[in-house]
Amino acid sequence: DAGITQSPRHKVTETGTPVTLRCHQTENHRYMYWYRQDPGHGLRLIHYSYGVKDTDKGEVSDGYSVSRSKTEDFLLTLESATSSQTSVYFCAISEWQGGNQPQHFGDGTRLSIL
Amino acid sequence: GESVGLHLPTLSVQEGDNSIINCAYSNSASDYFIWYKQESGKGPQFIIDIRSNMDKRQGQRVTVLLNKTVKHLSLQIAATQPGDSAVYFCASRSNDYKLSFGAGTTVTVRA
After folding, report:
1. Mean per-residue pLDDT for A78-87?
2. Tell me, what's the pLDDT at B97?
3. Stretches in chain B below the pLDDT threshold 70
4. A42: pLDDT confidence band, cut at 50, 70 and 90?
5. Omega into A102 within 30° of 0, i.e. cis?
6. Is B83 helix (H, G, I), strand (E, B) or coil?
7. Distance of CA B110 to the CA centre of its chain
C-alpha cells in the first residue's frame, strides 16, 4: 500500500465548527489531492497541491481551504462546517501528473456534520 | 468538463465466471485511463491503467480494453473470486491533467 495516512478516520461535529483533516505521506510525492465521495457521485476534487505552499482549486472548492507547509503533509480545513459537507474525504498522491502516473489513495475520513 | 459514467450500477457474477465492467467517457482528448477497486471502508486501490495509444492491456487476471472511437473502456476480470467483490470505477484524465471519476459498479460474487 502507498504510504498515506489520513487522520482522523472518523469525526462527528456540529454545524459552524471548524474542522481540519490531515493527510500524511511517506512517498515524497510532489502532488497531493483532496477528494470527497458522496453516494451517486464519482470522486470530486476539492483542492490539490503541486508542491510545498503551491495549491489550486478543484471543482468543489467552496467552503474548503488547504495548506501544505511540508512535502509530507496536506491539510484540508472546513472553516465553518455545514451539513452539506458531510461526506467521506479521501487524500491521494501522485509523483507527477503526466505519463502513466495513477493517483494512490488513503483510506479516507468519514465526516458527519450534525 | 469531462463526464465519466458506468453502464450498470450493480453486477452479480457467479464465482469462477468472468466479469465485465463497462465505462464511458465524454472527452475525446482524454489520454489516460485508470481502473480502481474500492472495498468497504477503504480507499480506492489501483488495479490497472492504459494510455490512449493502446487498445488493450493485461494484468494479473484483469484486462482493460479501450475503444476510442466510441469513448468506451471495459475491465474484464477472469475467474472471478469472492475477494473480487467490491465497487469498481474508472477514471479518465483530460488535458488539464485532472482525473474524472465514474460513480462505480458494485460487483457481488455469488458462491
Report:
1. 97
2. 84
3. 1-3, 6-7
4. confident
5. no
6. helix
7. 20
pLDDT for position A96? 84
Q: What average pLDDT does this structure show over A63-91?
A: 97
Q: Which residues of B touch A108 (CB under 8 A)?
A: 41-43
Cα gap A108→A9, rounded to integer Å: 6
pLDDT of A67 > 80? The answer is yes
Residue matched to cell numbers 465466471: B17
Q: Does A104 touch chain B (CB under 8 A)?
A: yes
CA triple A41-B101-A54, angle to 5 deg: 105
CB A16 within 8 A of CB A80: yes
Spatial distance between the Cα atoms of B7 and B70, rounded to a whole number of angstroms: 14
Q: What dihedral angle (degrees, nearest 10) is formed by the CA atoms of B14, A104, B68, B98? A: 140
Angstrom distances, CA of residue B1 to CA of B30, B47, B69, B93: 11, 25, 19, 11
Is some CB atom of chain B closer than 8 A to the CB atom of A58? Answer: yes
The C-alpha of A43 sits at a distance from chain B's nearest C-alpha, in angstroms, of 6
C-alpha angle B12-A110-A61 in degrees, rounded to nearest 5: 105
Contact check, Cβ <8 Å, A100/B42: no
Position A70 scores a pLDDT of 96
